[in-house]
Amino acid sequence: MKKLVLLSLIVLMSVPMFAQENASSEKTRDSFLYAEILGYSKFLSTKVSVTIDFGQNTTLFEDTRLRDENGKVVNFNSMVDAMNWMGAQGWEFVQAYTITENDQNVYHWLLKLNLKYLTPEQVQEITSKFKTKRSK
Asked: What is the DSSP string of 38-60?
């Protein structure tokens, strides 16, 4: 009887250790690329001007609005329109908040892209779509 109780205790004590090991290894497998889109209301318009920050090196007065292949600024009807565009690129919504600057709301949306199933080449291709500078 004592052996059965001792064996049961050993088994029960090892189960939580197994669960913790698996849970921590699951966390290290997922890595994400994060981006923040900022939306500014356009003057006398219902559209928003969207800039993006995915960690790129920028100067103080650099224009970080999204541009298409021709270098033309991409305009969005709303922040949801911008999120739909980003979602089509594989980005997931994380968090949103609004800050008021000079009586104007600035919308901040944090997004993430799971890199788990992407090759480095695919990641490069995705980030190259986020052109913020004009083509030369």
From this structure: EEEEPTTSS-EEEEEESS----T
Tokens of 8: 């049961």
CA–CA distance, 98 with 45 (Å, rounded to integer): 19
Ramachandran angles phi, psi of 119, nearest 5°: -85, 160
pTM: 0.63
How many structural domains compose the chain?
A: 2
Specify whether 109 is located in the same domain as 49.
yes
| Longest CA–CA separation in the chain, Å | 83
Q: Domain range spanning residue 5?
A: 1-29
Contact, 18 vs 95, CB < 8 A?
A: no
Q: Average pLDDT of each block of 10 consecutive residues along the chain (136 residues)?
A: 59 53 52 90 83 77 77 86 88 93 88 88 75 55
State whether 83 and 93 are in the same domain. Answer: yes
Same domain, 25 and 35: no
Q: Fill in the DSSP letter of residue 64.
A: -
